[in-house]
């Protein structure tokens, strides 16, 4: 077992620099706010990240991390921090250590499905039933379309029970997808509610159309063409990769102990990828180069543009979904990407097509250290893409009308909601509110009618999260700019602890 101090001593030794050869990134800007690209910050970015990581290892129960940055076709850095295996004092190597990006895996699935579209086998508005060997009943006569999968609008309940630490409990993802069709709870295409099952179904379609197992397909048509030789969706990991994976750890009494491997391949297309920093650099460079790398193209420019194009947003004035990508910021410059959360890993990928800049980061942390990914993402975003706070609202008081309890739309609708699924909104003045959700309380000040900007926990340059209230009094919807993949529905007044879910 190894102490936190040993981790700090290993950080500098674990750094690899390759010379050139969210939480939450910044949100869309309302009128009066400004954002920009600080290209000069690229020169000092590695040293800046070194400082942030030293702080996180000291205070955030982070045992290991990887940060990879590309800009205009070049790898600026791929640095490892902390340990792969704390007990045996094996440091993270920025070139060879493997990390698990969680739901960033979905981007490979969306590319695979886009390849099916490019080949003419699938269309965005196809009923998904046209491409699978089982039947999904329509909701009020409306089928789920391929477009609904890309934008997370199938109108389905959330699912769980798809991870295990016991290899004997695994079933093939295709079997799991067929046997675990979620409850239909809303019309498709109306509201974004993040769906792991929907992405697993997208991978199922790729298998059905291509005739290849999903892991084989991605290796043959994405990883191999891009030279991503250290990436896989397979679990257990292939022998050639197994010894390079960063381990999750528990922290008790200041000492780390390794945890067992967590298997995600029952929802393989939604989250079972394993990658290296250099592989993610190649992937980001290809996507920032309209789908091509070193003369090899994995997707047409038109389909890359489709993935980046806005599809739907829950809130009228906040970022929403592209096609697979989450939209982190609409302008100054526009930022897209995807985050990933697993039991032991917290990851993020941020792309700026306008500037040709990409960031991939992955952190291994004990439970108390899980906020570290959002903090590191925000630090890098604020450094490279700084923004100024918006002017404050000085007109009629509005905060009190939004007070109440709100319930998240991404949940298992067949079960009693967990208390953490509620957000509690309280007015703290005529134009300011606090929001308590997922065990944390944040303070927001009003910048437009129904639109509030984060004040809690900020650093110079932002980013500044925003929340918007929309709909009608008594039926408000609440969205965070940092979470375009879900929203909250008003379910009752603050004192009404027994309020029923308005959606049933």
What does it look like?
It comes from Glycocaulis alkaliphilus. The protein is of the alpha+beta class. The protein has an 8-stranded antiparallel β-barrel with strand order 15-16-17-18-19-20-21-22. Strands 4-3-2-14-13-12-11 form a 7-stranded antiparallel beta sheet, with helices on both faces. Strands 1-7-6 form a 3-stranded antiparallel beta sheet. It has helices at residues 4-11, 45-59, 105-118, 146-150, 173-179, 196-210, 214-226, 239-242, 268-271, 277-288, 301-308, 372-384; strands at 2-3, 62-71, 74-85, 90-91, 98-99, 249-252, 255-258, 275-276, 292-293, 296-297, 326-329, 335-341, 345-352, 357-365, 404-408, 422-427, 432-437, 440-448, 451-454, 466-470, 477-480, 488-492. It contains 12 helices and 22 strands. The longest helix has 15 residues, at 45-59.
CATH topology of the largest domain: Beta-lactamase
Low-confidence stretches: 1-32, 497-504
Q: Which range best describes the helical content: under 10%, 10-25%, 25-40%, 40-55%, 55-70% or over 70%?
A: 10-25%
CATH homologous superfamily annotation of the largest domain: DD-peptidase/beta-lactamase superfamily
- Reported CATH architecture of the largest domain: 3-Layer(aba) Sandwich
The backbone outline, from C-alpha atoms, is globular
For the termini, the CA-CA separation is 49 Å
Derived from helix and strand composition plus strand pairing, the structural class reads alpha+beta
Mean pLDDT: 91
How many H/I helices?
Answer: 12
- The percent range for strand residues is 15-25%
């Amino acid at each position: 077992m190894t102490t936190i101090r040993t981790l700090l001593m290993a950080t500098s030794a674990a750094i690899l620099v390759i010379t050139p050869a969210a939480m939450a990134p910044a949100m869309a800007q309302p009128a009066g706010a400004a954002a920009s690209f600080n290209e000069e910050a690229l020169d000092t970015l590695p040293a800046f990240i070194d400082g942030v990581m030293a702080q996180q290892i000291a205070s955030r129960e982070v045992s290991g991390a990887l940060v990879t940055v590309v800009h205009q076709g070049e790898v600026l850095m791929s640095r490892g921090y902390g340990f792969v295996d704390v007990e045996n004092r094996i440091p993270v190597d920025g070139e060879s250590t493997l990390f698990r990006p969680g739901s960033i895996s979905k981007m490979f699935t969306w590319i695979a499905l886009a390849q099916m579209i490019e080949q003419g086998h699938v269309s965005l508005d196809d009923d998904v039933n046209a491409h699978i060997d089982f039947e999904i009943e329509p909701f009020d006569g409306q089928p789920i379309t391929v477009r609904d999968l890309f934008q997370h609008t199938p109108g389905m309940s959330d699912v769980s029970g798809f991870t295990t630490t016991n290899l004997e409990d695994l079933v093939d993802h295709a079997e799991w997808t067929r046997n675990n069709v979620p409850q239909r709870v809303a019309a498709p295409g109306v509201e974004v509610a993040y769906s792991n099952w929907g992405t697993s179904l997208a991978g199922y379609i790729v298998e059905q159309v291509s005739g290849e197992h999903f892991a084989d397909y991605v290796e043959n048509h994405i990883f191999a063409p891009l030279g991503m030789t250290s990436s896989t969706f397979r679990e257990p990991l292939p022998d050639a990769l197994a010894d390079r994976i960063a381990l999750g750890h528990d922290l008790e009494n200041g000492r780390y102990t390794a945890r067992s491997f967590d298997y995600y391949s029952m929802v393989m297309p939604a989250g079972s990828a394993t990658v290296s920093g250099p592989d993610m650099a190649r992937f980001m460079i290809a996507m920032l180069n309209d789908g091509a790398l070193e003369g090899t193209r994995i997707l047409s420019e038109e389909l890359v543009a489709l993935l980046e194009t806005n599809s739907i947003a829950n809130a009228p004035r906040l970022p929403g979904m592209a096609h697979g990508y989450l939209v982190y910021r609409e302008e100054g410059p526009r930022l897209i990407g995807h985050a990933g959360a697993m039991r032991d890993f917290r990851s993020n990928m941020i792309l700026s097509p306008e500037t040709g800049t990409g960031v991939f980061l992955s952190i291994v942390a004990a439970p108390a250290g899980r906020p570290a990914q959002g903090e590191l993402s925000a630090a890098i975003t604020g450094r490279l893409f700084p923004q100024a706070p918006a002017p404050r609202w000085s007109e009629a008081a509005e905060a009190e009308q939004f007070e109440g309890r709100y319930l998240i739309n991404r949940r298992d609708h067949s079960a009693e909601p967990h208390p953490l699924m509620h957000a509690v909104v309280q007015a703290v003045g005529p134009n300011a509110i606090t929001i308590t959700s997922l065990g944390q309380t944040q303070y927001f000040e009003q910048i437009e009618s129904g639109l509030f900007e984060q004040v809690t926990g900020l650093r110079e340059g932002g980013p500044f999260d925003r929340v918007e209230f929309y709909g009608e009094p008594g039926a408000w919807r609440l969205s965070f700019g940092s979470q375009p993949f879900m929203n909250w529905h008003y379910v009752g007044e603050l004192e009404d602890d027994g309020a029923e879910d308005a959606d049933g």
